[in-house]
Sequence to fold (479 residues):
Amino acid sequence: MRPVACRDRSVAVRRGGAGLLLVLLTALSTILVGGSAHAATTPCSPDDATACLNVTVTVPGTGPAAGVALSVEGADAAVDVVTDAAGKISVPLTAAGDYTVTVDETTLPAGTVLKDPSANPVVVAVVLGRSAGRIVQAVPPDQAGAAVEETEEADPTTGADAGSTAGADTEAGAEAEASAEASAGPGTNRYAQLVLAGTVFGVLLALAALGANLIYGTTGLSNFSHGELVTLGGMTAFMAVQWWDLPLWLAIVVSTAAGGLMGWLLNRVVFGPLRRRGVGITQQMIVTIGLSLAMLSGFLFVFGARPAPIVSGISQRMQIGPVQISGQSLVSVGIALVVLAAVAFVLARTRLGRATRAVSDNPALAAATGIKVESVISRVWIVSAALASLGGVLLALYLNTTRFNFGSTLLLLMFAAITLGGLGSPLGAVLGALVIGLVVELSTLVLPSDMRYASALVILILVLLLRPQGILGRAERIG
Fold:
């Protein structure tokens, strides 16, 4: 038996590692979610009789501009409004037509002017059942003269491009991306539509989260750079379609292959040598945080902060009973389900799957029985990164956009899904992602849309407090 002092020291080290992980997750969630949690404007929901005009006023590099006065004049309205703490206004309109939006320049933050003074006032076309949006930038006088961005939000009845507005103002911490699938258009039931949106989102999130759980199961490593592998897939697909003019199906293949190659490189160049040198899991986890920041900066340098929608066309939505879904989302879910089924088959029925499960259960015993542990881990890294990149493409198609911090925004949700389902359990990751997807979408019934991802943090904390092993995880005795 081990001496009491050694056992106590082991318990303290493991508890300290768990505490460090919880602190890191909490800090990350604060950074990712906190920027949007301050929004106070009641969001306008378009329907067949209502249109929404949304305007965000921001100072690049500083944040939202609160207290800026604007006037909206048009067919049936003459409204004076003031931006809230998030720099936003949301005006419901009951008649289609052209509306003139005028910014009172005297109310802009001190020392700033409109970036494009010639676009004030500006005429915005409004259509019933849709949301029209505009981003107004206030800059120092020496930076004035460039054009102001104008964007249009998703059409809830046709599934139009939502990414152009949702989250477009990165510096101001504007609203998160949202799929048109969550919008209840004419002829739909709102609750059924949100359940459908949550299920679709959960399936796609499961595809991205599964890889991270496989890595944890075989190496014990919580990979904080996994979100950037998701971003890699979305951005590669964006380049393939928009820059290289490749068809979408080929872009998906290229993105998945790029993710697999990146996984092989990370294991071969970084984590393989660290394991051979006996570097601890905590130190490796810190390395993944550094990799995440480096890759995030690289994406920002190459692609900038603006949204990068993979496809610019409109995906027609189909009515199925009380819900609507776009053909693009149906194809994405179909691909995700086929891939998830293939991974389950490989893990359960093939030699590689049995070797992977053996390494996950006991690496030393697996090595003693002749299994090449390092070879298995290398293949797991390749598959994990490929799944993350494929998930990134499908999520970007579902949310209608991608951007430099796309994966980082979803990383908290992936960790919450893995923790809820059970660390190291592939099936648990899928179940956890489905629960997280439903909670995220249904939470918009009682929470502002900007705060929908914050519900994942609540679930994460509750699971760690009440059932640390998750739904399908195994309780382990320490000491």
About this structure: The two ends are 11 Å apart (CA to CA).
